[in-house]
Design a protein that fits this description.
Structural class: alpha/beta
Distance between the termini: 36 Å
Bound molecules: N-carbamoyl-L-aspartate
Number of strands: 9
Helix content: 25-40%
Radius of gyration: 19 Å
Largest sheet: 5 strands, parallel
Number of helices: 12
Number of domains: 2
CATH class of the largest domain: Alpha Beta
Strand order of the largest sheet: 7-6-5-8-9
CATH topology of the largest domain: Rossmann fold
């Protein structure tokens, strides 16, 4: 069902860039990677590095008390497996109380507006909202609405941004490939509907990456990207030549007009990442995917499960990265 938005529609999907810092210049919300300064980005990645040990299998008690007494509300108005679950684990490892609002059975289904729901949860002393919504700019609008002690994290807003996914992807690239400024990164497939691709592109550019390639059919790529270092390719072999990182994306049917949805099998034939095609990239290249994966459409199983795949590592690192984001904004 479509939630009643009550003035939640985006006026300007990019408005998050200005509104994520408080009057002291500290990160109050995390809404977008566009315009997020390099030092803030690196501070999040370095903090996540420290949390990797807290979440490691070797450690018996995987908890720190940084968010003890705080309440984190997960508000997912769109489906999610990895993002919602890793936010919950991350919040619990920081000792927060976590409330997962079940949107299907909440009063949203009775016509309550999102901002009225938010007001009620603030009245229950919410400290952090983690929000996923199909409307671009939804999190930024909620951030403008809440009182100043409350924090909002964008867990995906329409086709706009998915900043924590972008951060965990950057963390993964840095982990395996070290210096991001020296990398060649290729993003294949449905870039135009992908908030993940957008967050990655802004984050990579901020960290000095000079070779970012988006590869796919014309219908799934922006015609040009006005950001230094980003190039558009309509030929997979050309685009993949010598790259260090290959990221594939799901065809996001739910964000497309009926007529333009590409068929799975023909898409795979032309754009699917197979071992043969991956051989165009650097021999040490890593393969990434934000999930959910559609095997045999954007990626072959042999690649998804192959030695160059770091797809499940991305998921694990997502916990440490989300712990870092929550602990940093809660301390501001
Ligand atoms: C992505 C999303 O929701 O944008 N998934 C995720 O959070 N890992 C990508 C997608 O839906 O295809």
């Amino acid at each position: 069902m479509t939630p009643n938005l009550h003035a939640l529609d985006a006026e300007d999907a990019n408005s998050g860039a200005q509104s994520q810092f408080n009057s002291l210049g500290n990160l109050q919300h995390l809404l977008t990677l566009e315009g997020l300064p390099k030092e803030t980005l690196l501070h999040i990645l370095d903090t996540a590095e420290q949390f990797v040990s807290v979440t490691s299998l070797q450690r018996e008690v995987k908890k720190v008390p940084l968010l003890r007494g705080k309440s984190v509300f997960n508000l997912f108005f769109e489906n999610s497996t990895r993002t919602r679950t890793t936010f919950e684990i991350a919040a619990k490892r920081l000792s927060a109380d976590v409330i997962n609002l079940d949107i299907q059975t909440s009063s949203t289904a009775k016509g309550e507006s999102v901002l009225d729901t938010i007001d009620n949860l603030v009245a229950m002393q919410a400290d952090i909202f983690v929000v996923r919504h199909k409307t671009s700019g939804a999190s930024a609008n909620i951030a403008r609405h809440v009182p100043s002690h409350v924090h909002v994290i964008n867990a995906g807003d329409g086709t706009n941004q998915h900043p924590t996914q972008g951060l965990l992807d950057l963390f993964t690239m840095r982990h395996f490939k070290k210096d991001i400024s020296q990398l060649k990164v290729a993003i294949i497939g449905d870039v135009i509907h992908s908030r993940v691709a957008k967050s990655n592109i802004y984050g990579l550019a901020t960290l000095g990456c000079k070779d970012i390639r988006v590869i796919g059919p014309k219908s799934l790529l922006p015609s040009q990207i006005d950001l230094q270092g980003v190039r558009v390719f309509h030929d997979l072999s050309d685009g993949l030549a010598g790259v260090d990182v290959v990221m594939t994306l799901r065809i996001q049917k739910e964000r497309m007009a009926q007529g333009q949805v590409p068929e799975g099998e023909p898409f795979f034939k032309e754009w699917g990442l197979t071992s043969e095609r991956l051989a165009q990239a650097d021999a040490q290249a890593i393969v990434m995917h934000p999930g959910p994966m559609n095997r045999g459409i954007e990626i072959a199983s042999e690649v998804a499960d192959g030695p160059q795949s770091v797809i499940l590592k991305q998921v694990t690192f997502g916990i440490a990265v989300r712990m870092a984001v929550m602990s940093i904004i809660a301390s501001n």
